[in-house]
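Take a minute with the sequence and fold tokens given here and flag any structure token that looks odd. Thanks in advance.
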Amino acid sequence: MHRILLVIDHLGMGGAQRQMANLAVGLSERRHEVKLALYYPDRQQLRGRLQAAGVVVHELRKLARYSPALPVRLAALLRRGEFDACISYLDTPNVYAELAGILSRNTLIIATERIDYGTSKLPLPVRVRSQLHRLADYVVTNSQTHATEMIEAYPWIRERIRVIHNGVDTEAFAPPKETGHHDHRHPRLLALGTLVRKKNAHGLIEAVALCRDQMRLRVQVEWAGRVDDTPAARSYRESLQARVEALRLEDQWRFLGACDDVPNRLRTCTALVHPAFRKGLPNAVCEALACGKAVLASNAGDNVTLVGESRGRCFEPGDPRSSADSIAWLAELDDGQYRSLGVEARSYAVKALSLERMVSDYEGLMQ
């Protein structure tokens, strides 16, 4: 049994936060003593699930954007709890955990990256944060794409980098027990993701208009994802709505906002569409596959590996026509071909993306 501290910013419904909750519960179920530290306590939708699993949550309140006191307090927690390992998710929690490791040398530090670089010229903050990985025992990426990028940028990281794919709760994310009929010839697509430019909602809007105007294909899209409470985020959301109205797509497009019923949304859609410009290993794609859903995704990150040729189709995210062609491809399948995509999706998720496999991979690092 290991004593393990997990570190993240908050316990809202973001993809990384859900992954950390999965890891915490999975490790706890294997008799490890698991605790979690966060510094934004105002978003805690996932806390109840952790408490039900016996995971204690420590609140290390962050009083300023750049808080030098926080890694010191985190180090004190690591020493006081005599933790064997500290696993952090996301850029800023990684920085705090790696700095805390200087003052808590008996703790194994595992820093986890959650996205690919997506650019050949890395900004200075990214380069600085990456150098702090020298303080970690292991650096985990959730995609092979990002691992390759990091090794190319920093050859010294090769010996400590590991790839551990996202883990999906394949019981919570599962096909419906009673399979209803989905008329894929009139696709009802679901998109999942925070409304930011890199998720490429604007490109998908253009593709839906192309399907209607040039392919005589009527597509319904629901986009589920929060809008950050910043002027830039609100302005972007308004620009998207304006484009929907300009193209007269109001009856084909819905912004749902943040949703806490993602599994049910996935079960009732025709397919997931994921048009992001860049992403390592998207939670949304993994969860859709577990629900036995076909996936239409951009050919970014590890999407080509996830989707393959038997679970959906990939497209160029910067080309709305390519996106529209992938939607038309789905609509033109016969019923047997469409069902086969779902069967292959579920089989792949159970084999390659299970929560049990992810937990075992992290256990392997600690052993």
Q: What stands out?
A: The mean pLDDT is 92. The CA atoms of residues 116 and 146 lie 5 Å apart.
